C-alpha cells in the first residue's frame, strides 16, 4: 500500500470548498405515488415511453450490474458521458489553471491534450520509446512539484500495444500525483485490468468504456474506477443528471449479454491476427505493431495515396502518417470478416496497380 500519497494535497482549493448542487433526486430516494418536487411534466412524454422523470443521479442499478461483471465495488465506480467526461473532471479537480501541469506520453489518445488546453493546464510530452514503451527516466525528469496527473493509455491508441505492467507500477509507486491508466481496449488484451489493484494504489484512476468491445459507442458511457475518496470528488463535480434514463435502461439490458460480447471479442482477436498475417506477406508493408486492441497500426509505402484510394472506394481507415513516431502509418480497425476481405482486396488492387 502506497503511504506517501495525499489526496487533500492534490485537490484544488476551490474544489475542497465546493458545495455540490443538490438535486431533487438526491434529497428524496425511494418510491412515491405523487412526485411534485422536481418541476417535471406530470403528464408524461410525447413519446411511446415516458421519460418525464429525472434519472437516478448516481446510476446505482448500473453500478451494481457493473460490479457483478467487473468485480469493482459500486462505490469505486464513476459513470460519465464517455471517458471524456472523467478526463475533464480530473483536470478540473486537481489542476490549477495556469499553474499546474500534466504528463502525456505520445503518441497517445488526443483528448488528454485537448482537455489540458480547454482547462488552461500545461502538458509536458515525454515520447514513448521506439518500441512504444514508457521512457521512465524521461518521465521522472519531467515531474516537478506542480505535476498533478500522468496519463497512460494501455493498450495504447494509436499504436495498439500494451504498456509493460511493471513500468506502470513503477510510476504508481514513485509518483505522488494521480496516475490515469486508460484501458479503453482492455477487453482485447491478455493483460489483466489495473482495476483489481485499486486497494494497493490510492493514486490510481482506471478508465474504461462501453464504446469498444460492448458496441455501445452511440450511447457515450464511460467508466472510471478509483478509490472511494476520488469517486466522491468526481460525483461532487459532475452535472447532477449526467447519464440520461434511456442510456441507463439500454445499458442495463446490454449488460445481460456478456456471452455475446465475449464471442465478438474472440472473433475480433481472430480477425486481427488473420489480417496481420495477410499484411505481413505484402512487400509494401514495412512494419505492423503487435496489437492488444481492436485495430492494428501498419507502416506501409505511399500511406497517403493508399488512404485516398480507400476513401474513393468507401473504405475509411485512420491516417496517422503525420503523427510523431507513427510516420507512414495507417490505423486499421478490425471489421467483420467481409469488411476485412474488402480491405485486403483494396490493398492488393492498389499496390499491384502502382508497383
From TrEMBL:
<comment type="pathway">
    <text>Lipid metabolism.</text>
</comment>
<dbReference type="InterPro" id="IPR001917">
    <property type="entry name" value="Aminotrans_II_pyridoxalP_BS"/>
</dbReference>
<comment type="subunit">
    <text>Homodimer.</text>
</comment>
<keyword id="KW-0032">Aminotransferase</keyword>
<comment type="pathway">
    <text>Amino-acid biosynthesis; L-histidine biosynthesis; L-histidine from 5-phospho-alpha-D-ribose 1-diphosphate: step 7/9.</text>
</comment>
<protein>
    <recommendedName>
        <fullName>Histidinol-phosphate aminotransferase</fullName>
        <ecNumber>2.6.1.9</ecNumber>
    </recommendedName>
</protein>
<feature type="modified residue" description="N6-(pyridoxal phosphate)lysine">
    <location>
        <position position="212"/>
    </location>
</feature>
<dbReference type="GO" id="GO:0004400">
    <property type="term" value="F:histidinol-phosphate transaminase activity"/>
</dbReference>
<dbReference type="InterPro" id="IPR015424">
    <property type="entry name" value="PyrdxlP-dep_Trfase"/>
</dbReference>
<dbReference type="InterPro" id="IPR015422">
    <property type="entry name" value="PyrdxlP-dep_Trfase_small"/>
</dbReference>
<dbReference type="InterPro" id="IPR004839">
    <property type="entry name" value="Aminotransferase_I/II_large"/>
</dbReference>
<keyword id="KW-0808">Transferase</keyword>
<keyword id="KW-0028">Amino-acid biosynthesis</keyword>
<dbReference type="Pfam" id="PF00155">
    <property type="entry name" value="Aminotran_1_2"/>
</dbReference>
<feature type="domain" description="Aminotransferase class I/classII large">
    <location>
        <begin position="49"/>
        <end position="347"/>
    </location>
</feature>
<dbReference type="InterPro" id="IPR005861">
    <property type="entry name" value="HisP_aminotrans"/>
</dbReference>
<dbReference type="GO" id="GO:0000105">
    <property type="term" value="P:L-histidine biosynthetic process"/>
</dbReference>
<dbReference type="GO" id="GO:0030170">
    <property type="term" value="F:pyridoxal phosphate binding"/>
</dbReference>
<keyword id="KW-0663">Pyridoxal phosphate</keyword>
<comment type="similarity">
    <text>Belongs to the class-II pyridoxal-phosphate-dependent aminotransferase family. Histidinol-phosphate aminotransferase subfamily.</text>
</comment>
<keyword id="KW-0368">Histidine biosynthesis</keyword>
<dbReference type="InterPro" id="IPR015421">
    <property type="entry name" value="PyrdxlP-dep_Trfase_major"/>
</dbReference>
Amino acid at each position: 500500500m502506497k503511504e506517501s500519497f495525499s489526496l487533500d494535497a492534490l485537490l484544488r482549493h476551490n474544489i475542497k470548498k465546493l458545495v455540490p448542487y443538490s438535486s431533487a433526486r438526491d434529497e428524496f430516494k425511494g418510491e412515491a405515488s405523487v412526485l411534485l418536487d422536481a418541476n417535471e411534466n406530470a403528464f408524461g412524454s410525447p413519446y411511446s415511453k415516458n421519460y418525464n422523470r429525472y434519472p437516478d443521479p448516481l446510476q446505482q442499478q448500473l453500478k451494481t450490474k457493473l460490479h457483478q461483471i467487473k468485480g469493482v465495488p459500486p462505490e469505486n465506480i464513476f459513470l460519465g458521458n464517455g471517458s471524456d467526461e472523467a478526463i475533464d473532471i480530473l483536470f478540473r479537480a486537481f489542476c490549477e489553471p495556469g499553474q499546474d501541469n500534466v504528463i502525456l506520453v505520445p503518441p497517445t489518445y488526443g483528448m488528454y491534450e485537448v482537455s489540458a488546453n480547454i482547462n488552461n493546464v500545461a502538458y509536458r510530452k515525454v515520447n514513448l520509446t521506439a518500441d512504444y514503451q514508457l521512457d521512465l527516466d524521461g518521465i521522472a525528469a519531467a515531474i516537478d512539484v506542480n505535476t498533478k496527473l500522468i496519463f497512460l493509455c494501455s493498450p495504447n491508441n494509436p499504436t495498439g500495444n500494451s504498456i509493460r505492467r511493471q513500468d506502470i507500477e513503477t510510476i504508481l509507486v514513485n509518483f505522488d500525483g494521480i496516475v490515469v491508466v486508460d484501458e479503453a481496449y482492455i477487453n482485447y488484451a491478455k493483460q489483466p485490468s489495473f482495476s483489481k489493484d485499486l486497494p494497493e494504489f490510492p493514486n490510481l484512476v482506471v478508465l474504461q468504456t462501453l464504446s469498444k468491445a460492448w458496441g455501445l459507442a452511440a450511447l457515450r458511457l464511460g467508466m472510471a474506477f478509483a478509490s472511494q475518496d476520488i469517486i466522491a470528488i468526481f460525483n461532487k463535480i459532475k452535472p447532477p443528471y449526467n447519464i440520461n434514463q434511456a442510456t441507463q435502461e439500454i445499458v442495463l439490458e446490454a449488460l445481460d449479454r456478456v456471452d455475446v460480447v465475449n464471442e465478438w471479442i474472440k472473433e475480433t482477436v481472430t480477425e486481427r491476427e488473420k489480417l496481420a498475417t495477410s499484411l505481413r506477406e505484402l512487400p509494401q508493408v514495412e512494419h505492423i505493431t503487435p496489437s492488444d486492441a481492436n485495430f492494428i497500426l501498419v507502416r506501409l509505402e505511399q500511406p497517403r495515396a493508399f488512404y485516398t484510394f480507400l476513401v474513393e472506394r468507401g473504405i475509411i481507415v485512420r491516417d496517422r502518417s503525420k503523427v510523431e513516431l507513427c510516420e507512414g502509418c495507417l490505423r486499421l480497425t478490425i471489421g467483420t470478416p467481409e469488411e476485412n476481405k474488402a480491405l485486403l482486396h483494396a490493398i492488393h488492387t492498389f499496390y499491384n496497380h502502382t508497383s
